[in-house]
Here is the input.
Amino acid sequence: MIEAEWWEYDSPAEMAEAVAGDVGFIIESALDARGAALLALPGGGTPRPIYAKLSKAKFNWKKIVVVPTDDRLVPITDDLSNAKLLAQTFLPLGARVVPITGEIQDAKLAGNSADARLQDLPWPPDLCWLGMGGDGHTASIFAGPDLKEALDAPKARRAIGVTPDPLPPEAPVARVTLTRAAILSARTILITITGQAKRDLLEQAIADGQSSRLPIGRVLAEAEQPIDIHWCP
Ligand SMILES: O=C(O)[C@H](O)[C@@H](O)[C@H](O)[C@H](O)COP(=O)(O)O
Here is the structure.
């Protein structure tokens, strides 16, 4: 049974304030406990105002490592790159941002390379922050040919390469993504979504759990930690 707690806000600005505060608490707790913090952060548009708010906080950013939960197989200079947004936001603060893509264009080989990069990091993440697409994907775990590999990858496997079919219109490219095991290894998981349609979809995915037809339902169905879901209309 997925243990999900919903946090509702009247506006994206209110949600940004609250989620930045929660992420800040996770960071401070990690720095206090271990002198370091590892954050796996999503792409997409929802997190942008939250990143902007978070970047104003006065942490010892040099002790913080940021990785994308997933990324598109595009150059880091491309606006489709999740690492680009994270680098623009967190590198100037002194944080370390670790891209999980490079020159490799073959999705499977890119996935192996991404996994190797993540194996070099002090695991698990203190936070895995997820978004959800309108099709129920999360990170870059999509329904289709690569779903089983993403869900059933061994515990030690942190990333794989995927080629969604059909390619999502907002970013019609192959990707690398954290596996379900990597996502669920995080000390804390939080989700940010907006709009009633996504709320209805996520509530259904949580209700259906392991039998969900939506990737996010299948990912969360194995979660052992409580999931905080932040939502605004
Ligand atoms: O690379 C990506 O696209 C993201 O990691 C993806 O999983 C995102 O979180 C959802 O697509 C929601 O995106 P929005 O926040 O823009 O709705």
